[in-house]
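Subject: Protein record for review, amino acid sequence with backbone structure tokens
Why sent: The fold of this protein is of interest and is recorded here as tokens.
Enclosed: The protein record, placed directly beneath this head.
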Amino acid sequence: YMTGGPLLPAWPLHAACKALQSSSGSALSRLRAASNLLNNASASLPCLRLPDDDQYDGIWDYQWCTQTLPQESYFTRDPSRDAFPPSHVTRARVEAHCQRKYGVTPRWGWIAASYGGDRALRSSSNVILSNGALDPWSSGGVLKNISETVTAVIIPHGAHHVDLFFSHEEDTPDITHARAVEVAAIARWLKEPPPTPSQLGLSRPFPEEALS
């Protein structure tokens, strides 16, 4: 979400890999150059601060502890399978962390219970579910159409929410196409009357207290 400041290069992962594969400098200096693309895009920091595992992810941590919002800092890490230091994450460890830091316990299953999960999605309308194939989160995304009005847009060369960024001269055709599909769909929805409760699979309108 880098706005109003230094911008990432196009295809930042490719740029990071290029830095790692450089023939100049030590392996550590190449790793620093790759990390600086994201963590020091302004080139103003003399050092990079490594996160403390006990703090997990400060941006989404509280929301995880109250709503179990998925976040990568709670995934188990294994150097034999990835490039990160080992960290074995368990439900008990997460609950202890949330109690210690915020005094709350994660409500496991709260998101599905509150929003209805798959059933609610199938009862929805006018939704585009876009997934960039280069985004690790796409592994948990909706990759096929649910209905005529709840559709999936797959972006083979897309990273995390790339379709929501401003256009760039180095955008690939599939990114440009995804944005065009989304804009056309939104324009079409704005011209249509809103669906009735029965069209949404609801037996009656929402009670007023549910809307307050």
Notes: The radius of gyration is 21 Å.
